[in-house]
Write a structure and sequence with these properties.
By secondary structure, the protein is of the alpha+beta class. Helix content is 23%, strand content 40%. The model has no long low-confidence stretch (mean pLDDT 93). It comes from Flavobacterium helocola.
């Protein structure tokens, strides 16, 4: 992505508007409580992880709101946290659209390149790890389990996806987009490897 994209973020009714800037070389967010304060800025090469999802706000008898959550982390462990809150359906449509726009832009500006780097490593027969999943030319390893590429299947759901063995249903891993870092990277890298091997089955 070559162009600069700026998105106005307002966490809730009482919060001021804050600017989120997507630049080909950096990500910047006005997360300081002071208008004249210093924004948090991550250089592109320092961006390491992100996760996203929806936290539901439940009352005694019904759900009264939701919080759209997006967290971005750099290699030093510093985080940018973006929250979009809707109560009783107010601004729900516009916030849903903005949430999707931010997640898509993170992919386009930063995390698609991270996925491509992993895929390049794989094509060069370089072993690598995403979170706690180890990738090599034979398959993947996680939590003392190993699954060969020929035996690996993926299933995608709304908020998470699974990696599992076709032959042994005790070998599986659930990746939650909201609670696990880089869920979209894991999914896209795994799926692309399976597709290139002619092993991907849409489920």
């Amino acid at each position: 992505m070559e162009e600069v994209l700026k998105i106005s973020v307002k966490s809730d009714f009482f919060d001021r508007k804050r600017e989120l800037t997507f630049h080909p070389d950096f990500l910047e967010f006005d997360d300081n409580d002071r208008i004249d304060g210093i924004s948090t800025k991550f250089e592109k090469e320092s961006i390491a992880n992100f996760k996203f999802g929806i936290k539901w706000l439940n009352g005694y008898a019904f759900t009264f709101g939701r919080i759209y959550c997006i967290d971005i982390e750099n290699h030093n462990g510093k985080q940018i946290k973006i929250r979009l809150k809707s109560f009783y359906g107010i601004n729900l449509k516009s916030l849903t659209k903005k949430f999707a726009n931010i997640v898509d832009s993170l992919q386009d500006y930063y995390f698609d390149d991270i996925s491509r780097k992993y895929l390049q490593d794989f094509s060069n027969n370089i072993e690598f790890k995403i979170n706690n999943i180890e990738y090599n030319h034979k398959g993947i390893n996680f939590k003392n389990n190993s699954i060969l590429w020929e035996d690996l299947q993926t299933k995608n759901y709304r908020n998470y996806f699974s990696l599992s063995s076709k032959l042994d249903n005790t070998k599986y891993l659930l990746v939650d987009y909201m609670n696990d870092w880089n869920g979209t990277v894991i999914y896209s890298v795994t799926r692309k490897i399976l597709m290139d091997k002619g092993l991907f089955e849409q489920k």
